Amino acid sequence: MIRVATRKSSLAEIQTDIVIDILKQKLNIDCVKHFYTTKGDKILDVSLDKIGGKGLFIKEIEIALLNGEVDIAVHSLKDVPTELEEQFEIVATPIREDARDAFVSMKGLKFQELKRGARIGTSSIRRAKMLKNLRDDIEIVPIRGNVQTRIDKIERENLDGVVLAAAGLKRLGLEGIITEYFDVDEMVPACGQGAIAVEILKSNPLKNLISKIDDEDVRICTAAERNIMTILKGGCHSAVGAYAKIINDKIEIIAVNDVDGRLKKGKITGDKKDYIKISEEIAKSLL
Ligand SMILES: NCc1[nH]cc(CCC(=O)O)c1CC(=O)O
């Protein structure tokens, strides 16, 4: 039995079940879930950028890995800081959902159809900046909480809509409430958005075995995106976004950075094997 750490939220548990299924299908490994509450789950009334600190959703889980309570941990890659403490590593990124951001509005209106001054809920600086860039007149309303809470806030806080990761909505079976998908070049996704990451202690003898569930294309794309984030010093408190896709051994990367309040965007294509060099090149062009 492999012991798997997960947060308690329904999305976290669904993502953990996806990894557990893959471990069973590919390697015939059986798992048991261990549940943890993180700081990011507890502090719900304060915007994350005001709490500060990276890895709010993973600290308590890393302690469980260190204590030997669990063997592996499952996270949304997006919530994992680019620089892990040296005992830990991302051993696999087995799967990625739709990386796009989605718009959910109660009246079924598309983003561009909203009335002037419409109120849109998001606590992501990246989403807020890009929404403002698309429509200067809209009002951004900070919202926190898990995906369902944020959806409920449309009504409770009289919002015209919210922006959420399509991946989370789809995994929760809420695809049907999505009004519109933003194109990746108008709303560049967060680095790693939609990808699931498996974390392990470097010293764990299970490391080689678990690494067999890695998906190479997901790893390469998300490594390129996270490399851009490192170079641009982005985190969940900045407007940095990047999205990479692979078609026929070519990698195409689109990225955005906020330079003194102005959004700088770029695109680059190259051989997939050169993903480090290419991601570095686009990041440097956006400084
Ligand atoms: N920041 C919270 C968070 N972390 C991962 C997801 C969704 C799944 C994903 O993007 O991988 C979400 C919710 C959201 O951004 O709407």
Describe the overall structure:
The protein has 287 residues and is α/β, with parallel strands linked by helices. It folds into 2 domains: 2-98 and 191-285, Periplasmic binding protein-like II (D-Maltodextrin-Binding Protein, domain 2, 3-Layer(aba) Sandwich); 101-181, 3-Layer(aba) Sandwich (D-Maltodextrin-Binding Protein, domain 2), CATH 3.40.190.10. Helices cover 32% and strands 27% of the residues. 41% of the residues are buried. The mean pLDDT is 94. Bound molecules: ligand PBG. Ligand PBG is lined by residues 76, 78-79, 147, 164-165, 167-168, 193-194. It is an enzyme of class 2 (transferase).
Q: Brief description of this entry?
A:
The chain is α/β, with parallel strands linked by helices. The protein has helices at residues 10-27, 39-42, 48-51, 59-66, 125-134, 147-156, 166-171, 207-210, 216-231, 275-285; strands at residues 2-7, 31-36, 72-76, 88-96, 101-104, 119-121, 139-141, 161-165, 180-181, 195-201, 241-247, 250-259, 262-271. It has 2 domains: 2-98 and 191-285, D-Maltodextrin-Binding Protein, domain 2 (3-Layer(aba) Sandwich); 101-181, D-Maltodextrin-Binding Protein, domain 2.
CATH architecture designation of the largest domain? 3-Layer(aba) Sandwich
Percent range of helical residues? 25-40%
Strand percentage lies at: 25-35%
Spatial order of the strands in the main sheet?
A: 2-1-3-10-4
- Rg for CA atoms: 19 Å
Bound molecules: the ligand NCc1[nH]cc(CCC(=O)O)c1CC(=O)O
Number of strands: 13
**N-to-C span:** 47 Å
CATH hierarchy class name of the largest domain: Alpha Beta
CATH superfamily of the largest domain: Periplasmic binding protein-like II
Mean pLDDT: 94
Largest sheet: 5 strands, mixed
Oligomer: single chain
Total count of domains: 2
Query: How do the helices and strands follow one another from N- to C-terminus?
Result: EHEHHHEEEEHEHEHEEHHEEEH
Question: What is the structural class?
Answer: alpha/beta
CATH topology of the largest domain: D-Maltodextrin-Binding Protein, domain 2
The number of helical segments is 10
